[in-house]
Amino acid sequence: MNFTETKLKGCIIIEPHVIEDARGYFFESYHLQRLRAATGYELNFVQDNQSLSKYGVVRGLHIQKGKFAQAKLVRVLAGKILDVAVDVRKSSPTCGQHFSIELSNENKKQLYIPTGFLHGFSVLSEEAVVYYKCSTFYDKESEDGVYPLSNELNIDWGVPREKMLLSDKDLNAKSFSEFDFF
């Protein structure tokens, strides 16, 4: 596995070593000790989530706060997404900045997102199956979020605006300037 830190401190791209032959391929998708060494965090993932979404779906920007703040390890089992992380840690030199990366079943890349980041993705293929690990359990009272099309962030989601599909929750989320930073 190769680990590359993004411009956002603590947010890491993980590229597996893929072994391919006539039968197909094999790779290690998760290794706790290597991830701990690469991030410097004492990680224990406790919940796995999976979603199926159609082209144009934008999910996010979501975060859990307080004792339910979540680190996430995101990968794509089928299709292609643009995965987005926004640093909202007040003490971070990259607070307010975002990073995006294309994750797909073809490139097999993953993104580790530590606590203190908003997270979202858009679907670039006809469908995408997204799978991610969470470091704490979901807690409805701890969830928060930002409108993904907030002008202050100016995120290019890779999907024409007229083709975007957002949930009511995301359409009605607060603007970035209204968000209480971590």
Describe the structure.
The chain has helices at 32-39, 168-171; strands at 2-5, 12-15, 19-21, 24-26, 47-54, 58-64, 72-78, 80-87, 98-104, 110-113, 117-123, 127-134, 143-145. With 182 residues, the protein is mainly β. The protein has one domain (44-178): Jelly Rolls, CATH 2.60.120.10. It has a 6-stranded antiparallel β-sheet with strand order 1-2-10-7-12-5, with helices on one face. A 5-stranded antiparallel β-sheet has the order 9-8-11-6-13, with no helix packed on it. A two-stranded antiparallel ribbon has the order 3-4. It is globular and about 50 Å long. The relative contact order is 0.25. It starts with a strand and ends in an 11-residue tail after the last helix.
Topology:
Blueprint: E1 2-5, E2 12-15, E3 19-21, E4 24-26, H1 32-39, E5 47-54, E6 58-64, E7 72-78, E8 80-87, E9 98-104, E10 110-113, E11 117-123, E12 127-134, E13 143-145, H2 168-171
Antiparallel strand pairs: 1-2, 2-10, 3-4, 5-12, 6-11, 6-13, 7-10, 7-12, 8-9, 8-11
Outline of the structure:
The chain is mainly β. The chain has two helices and 13 strands.
